[in-house]
What we know:
By secondary structure, this protein is an alpha/beta fold. It has 68 helices and 66 strands.
Amino acid sequence: xxxxxxKKEIERGSYKNCIRIKGAREHNLKGIDVDIPRDKLxxxxxxxxxxxxxxxxxxxxxxGQRRYMESLSSYARQFxxxxxxxxxxxxxxxxxxxxxxxxxxxxxxxSTVGTVTEIYDYFRLLYARIGIPHCPKCGxxxxxxxxxxxxxxxMALPERTKIQILAPVVRGRKGEHVKLFEQAKKSxxxxxxxxxxxxxxxxxxxxxxxxxxxxxxxxDRLSVRDGIQKxxxxxxxxxxxxxxxxxxVDVIDGETLNxxxxxxxxxxxxxxxxxxPRSFSFNNPFGACPDCFGLxxxxxxxxELLIPDESLSIDEGAIVGMGWQSSKDEGSFSRAVxxxxxxxxxxxxxxxxxxxxxxxxxxxxxxxxGHSVKVKYKGQRGEGVYDVAFEGLIKNMERxxxxxxxxxxxxxxxxxxxxxxxxxxxxxRLKPSSLAVTIADKNIYEITNxxxxxxxxxxxxxxxxxxxxxxxAEILKEIKARIKFLVDVGLDYLALSRATGTLSGGEAQRIxxxxxxxxxxxGVAYILDEPSIGLHQRDNDxxxxxxxxxxxxxxxxxxxxxxxxxxxAADYIVDIGPGAGRNGGxxxxxxxxxxxxxxxxxxxxxxxxxxxKIPVPAERRKPAGWIKVRxxxxxxxxxIDVDIPIGVVxxxxxxxxxxxxxxxxxxxxxxxxxxxxxxxxxAGDHDGIDGIxxxxxxxxxxxxxxGRTPRSNPATYTGVFDMIRDLFATTKDAKERGxxxxxxxxxxxxxRCEACSGDGIIKIEMHFLPDVYVPCEVCExxxxxxxxxxxxxxxxxxxDVLDMTIEDAVDFFENVPSIRRKIETLNEVGLSYVKxxxxxxxLSGGEAQRIxxxxxxxxxxxxxxxYILDEPSIGLHQRDNExxxxxxxxxxxxxxxxxxxxxxxxxxxxxxxxxxxxxxxxxHGGEIVCVGDVEKIKQCPNSITGKYLSGERKVPVxxxxxxxxxxxxxxxxxxxxxxxxISLKIPKDKLxxxxxxxxxxxTxxxxxxxxxxGQRRYMESLSAYARQFxxxxxxxxxxxxxxxxxxxxxxxxxxxxxxxSTVGTVTEIYDYLRLLYARIGVPYCPDHHIPITxxxxxxxxxxIMELPDKTRCTILSPVIQGKKxxxxxxxxxxxKEGYIRVRIDGEIKYLEExxxxxxxxxxxxxxxxxxxxxxxDRSRFHDSLxxxxxxSDGLAILxxxxxxxxxxxxxxxxxxGFSVPKLEPKLFSFNAPFGACPxxxxxxxxxxxxxxxxxxxxxxxxxxxxxxxxKNIVNxxxxxxxxxxxxxxxxxxxxxxxxxxxxxxxxxxLLYGSDVPIAYQLNSRSGIVSTKLExxxxxxxxxxxxxMETTSTMSREWYGSFLADAQCPKxxxxxxxxxxLSVLVGxxxxxxxxQMSISEAIDFMDQLELTPTQAKIAELVVKEIKxxxxxxxxxxxxxxxxxxxxxTLSGGEAQRIxxxxxxxxxxxGVMYVLDEPSIGLHQRDNDRLxxxxxxxxxxxxxxxxxxxxxxxxxxxxYxxxxxxxxxVHGGQIVAAGTPEEIMQNENSxxxxxxxxxxxxxxxxxxxxxxxKKLKIVKASQNNLKNVNVxxxxxxxxxxxxxxxxxxxxxxTEVLTHGLQHALGRLRIKPGACKxxxxxxxxxxxxxxxxxxxGRTPRSNPATYTGVFDDIRDLFAQTKEAKMLGxxxxxxxxxxxxxRCEACQGDGILRISMHFLPDVYVPCxxCGGKRYNEETLQVHYKGKTIADVLDMTVEEALEFFSNVSxxxxxxxxxxxxxxxxxxxxxxxxTLSGGEAQRxxxxSELQKKATGKTLFVLDEPTTGLHSDDxxxxxxxxxxxxxxxxxxxxxxxNLDVIKCADQIIDMGPEGGQGGGTVICTGTPEKxxxxxxSYTGQYLKPMLEKGGDHGKSNCS
Length: 1912
């Protein structure tokens, strides 16, 4: 599309591929509307402060990232910080956003190029997996130690040496490890060592679960002597087994010996730890050098910093170190020490330090080496002579630094320290053992220290063994790819070990860009902030190439930029302005560079077109002198000498990384700062600087903020505000009132408004929405109190002056020269639009820099100052740059020197002199290329800068675009799970179905490959901090995926079973509701129904005065409520303020005796303000309460012996004193202790004893075991029975009367306990008799109490078997406490709100009436709630309530909630991957689902749906059919194309069913049943409306109906649970119904689901069906087995004996690869056969047991054809369509459908009784039509055997094959719960009210062909 055409189409609104922004108001944006084309390179430009960044970052990026993050789990999101919603009406067409800026360079000394690019992580993995360990001492290659070698080393110890054999079972792991201690105790061990302390296992060992621990089990204690070898060997083997190959020998009074079955040097006896990735991490104690903690350097005190000027004498203050500044003062102790040294060693303190001999200097710096001197000192406590062995300045400072606890003091000491390489690791950062591991003879440090280009060459040529290549292939591939990207962006000279803090801005930017290009993502919005900053023109060309490459991949690239080259290269420009600050925030012009140049209103266009130019000076100023830098060697500088002119503007330039900053910032500035300004800093490596005497001071002017808080502003920074306050204090009004200048400060009490503390605004925090700022109601935003504002100067008060722009202020103060002059300078540097009182946080970097320049201009000049500016044009528009250059010239014209590090061409043309550093970057730079004016630089042949200045290169301008891989998603070499290295192309922005038979590999392709990689690549753009909480995103096993977008998965598995999870919390509407109630809710007293206001102190004291006299009262101030942290600073401050006691977590303690708090636990801290005995004196209470309220923001606690009362100056009822704490969102959370009901802990239910479980048969008496709890101990000597029997005797309860006939009062005593103390005796079996007089606890409270108290899982299960859920008696199910429920909005509390259905809630919100203030505060919250409600309504969930538990949602409802959330996000360019969304959906609901999927596609997203549903396939754009079979027979692409193409493909089974070539036939006859029935009478569970249902036994019955109609409630909760309860499973609670008739006709109920047949790889079809037992029996009967004495146990791979112990019977060894796919290698020992050699000697018909497990069912059926018992079981597996699976196939590799059929086969083997009921819930889930056919055949076989099959199903093929249908409906939720129709499919098809009938009718008419039957 031509550029001009693009602009016209955008303006007309016909160009659809846009990011459409409406009403953007972030910061100074004035509600702008703008359309930005997608998939283009777009530049946002405009004056500094015009609002570009507000639009790009604070609006587009913030919203794009927030929307994608909302797709993550709520667990993951809690670690990513609050993503606030920007202040914008709407953004459409928005993609997931990634920001690339220069500020992301990590200054952490632990951060390197390797860690930032994550190449180092891959190297750590490589070294851990294929590295060869060597002995760190002798260099010998080391291997595993045997037990014999370990014994030899220990026996070599001196005789009688006492040792302990320890098993290190836990190493650096968090947890309490209770189970480990229990297990050790059970195993017979006596002692453990935990964190260095010995414990007996009989002791109670309590460990902090949040701290990391080391635990060793003491296996044996021995004394070394002859004869202990056997015992020692056994003990070593035990320890090695316990600690997985590790053992420690604790030599008493000697060094600990570490042994490993992995690595140890036999020569030196040195053992090293198991090699893991963390062994090579310098950020982890397992790998880091212990001396420098992995930093590679240490900080040491430096004599040069302690004595910076050696020309001074000690008397003149030569020593400046902390604590030694007083050495020139006669009365100080430090002076007395120096006097003693001078006397002892004969030197004078008046001599310049440089003139001392070296030995005297050494004594002063390093001490007297233990020799004492006589120090005479007279102090406050008297005088004396002391013997002092002087330790020296450095050791003295080191000791003081070590001993101080003050962080502030430590920082002051650090100013005298210098960084030096670590003496232990020599800068290599790692332990010797880690550095001794090599690959191709290089350790990991040597590899990372190479330049990228040399490393690339090394990796290509290094020689590896075959095994190393196999294991390391994937890692090496990833490393090579990432290194190539770094080379491609011109960073081949960097080393991976280079610290990121030393990178230039350009280098950091390109590293981030390389990472993103490497990710290969498409459909993303990349937002870049001034990427040309710090880049030379040559590097900028590379950058532009990179940006256009990102765009051509298919991404939107939005760049905030002023660089002209970038604008010319852009596809589209948005010019924001016209001015800055409040004069900006509007769209001035949009279009191509040509359009912008043609726009007369665009200042940018004027500069681009050349209508306005920055003038080039006609004549350059000559230098007034020179300074010379000699021998500069810092970083890459090559020992150069540089002459820098004085009295002129000098520009230092050169390519990025050439050494400019090293020369100017590290050497020149630091040397001058130290020499001229007496700063404590050390200059970079150089010989010296000549000519400094021509200068008097150096000033560095950067773009850092002028203040960190909104209280800083231009007036305060420049000092003009002091003058203005002085002026106001001299006015007549001020003098009359006695006001000084302090009265006019808004920072201190007196004149400021106290309601807002002088801010003028009050911030209302809105958590995940933008904070709302409302003007202070007291001062109306004017910052000062009324009295102060009455003082005026020229009719303006102090606030009016602060609100003036600079321009207005110049005129206003024209008659006050001192003020006018300061303000004038601000005007001259181009800040006329800025207000005097504008907060510093609102100023851009360029504005801050110009304020600093103006401040310098306003000072009196000496003409001898040197100003240094690093890249001052950063963020400046050409107009702003012009003003900056004029300012720099003014500074020069005053005689000063200006040095600018810069790449900007205008600056170079304006400079008097240019110093060009280069010629290249890194090792290719560091030299002076040329010095001279711009003309000289242009003519310099070696200067790259000169070539660009002379116009020898062409500015890149957009050409015709190369189309990237934007149309297709291309997968190459996918091999995840059973995929057979497949490659395919998938169209993008389409609805794509992946189908195939169950287990064919479609989920492996869609989820495990495409989704996993799409999410992983986007996650890599997040910070490393955020990623650590998101779990490891492993790289799938695939060669390459191109055209991949950020991926979001929508599946049904995300429904939470947590009882705390509701529809409201899952949709996050409840979070917004909590915010709404916290911000505009009004508390009402629950008893008096009047609004609650804050208590006054008088009212609090009145309440206290009601207490009896002499009541001991404690006044507490709750300063911390449930917050994590050590709170060290707070506690220290409280101590300083004189407080003595605090109550911490409910316990009062002395502050001075307080142990440090665990920072990982939540704590509540109340300060004890006062302890008072109540009397009539109110004054002390008044003072204490006032203090308490002030400390805790309006809260105070009154504690007496009997009660605790919370007072609030915020909210309390005037009548009864009912208090409500400060309204915060957490008050309305039932998941937080502040809001949750204290009785039920926010669950709304409590667990109480259910009498039907305790007394299942009330016709039995107590003696007959009628009370189930006592059933087995009635009339025994059991102590529990003795206790309850005493109660029975006391109340004369008849033990032989049926419980139902016992008087209620007597039964209550038994159940709930005695009402008086009872005397009784307990007789123990040992004969001890104890007499008691106490209340005897009833069985119900006793069970409830023990359930809560027990720590035993078994006991908890036993007590739990008598408990059931009951509504909480305190909150009545509302979940919240009384205070939270007292807050109302619109007359409803938050619980009442959540009880409304979605449709009712929408009506309520539409009719909600709010005050103007409430409406302003709640505007965004209300809008968000309404939006989310409407999306739920849109997907047909209007009947749900927000308090509905997420666990009670049907699969269809959960799916649609997830879909509604995603539709609401309105993201585009995303790839949504859905897993069988039609599961659990009725055809009517499925039509809605298909509509929702098409809507998401039409937004511009790709939808990949794993699906078998025929309607969904027909509605799709493209189908990928995976097959042809399942498991090993699948994993290939059978067909791919449109639905029509698939139907015509002869090889596709899917096509055959879609086209009707294959079909599931309608049965010829329907069964009538066996004459017996099950009848459910008046079922009322959930939404069931007293329905009666009859099920004919001996039939195939299907229950169907729309989603949420009540099918599961009827079948699962009422019928299945009812039958299970009746058949003896009493723990199962049946659903509500009057009765179930015909239970006698059922003897067994079998539920068959799709859950796995086993949780571990050891479970398989052979073990599950029991056929493996028969096969093992058969092998045990063979002649060979009998000869060897093998029984069937020998042929099990699960137990010791026959299995291979090296792999423990798994056959494979897993090599964990962390963030890459784990590598599985066959076990070396057994070759993957699972068994040891002896077992494999036994054969049956020439096959071993391993051969049999490797057979498919089909092969095994033929092999065992003569063994009928085995053949019968295998035949059933074959009959259910599982002929292809292997007998020993791991359960974890079976699909849900395969697992279900294994279970069905297992049931088919059993003999039918005719009284079994099989219940299946949605058995077609995940099944292809061909699998459904097999499933129906199996179900029909079960019915043919005489049993009954009851199925909940929506699949029409299953429904049409049923004998009987029960159709529920008509709608979901409250609109359902009735039976619409029952009967044969033919009967239901004629029922007009039945939705099922409408869809079923055309199928029956076509004889089973699904056809295109969509009924609406």
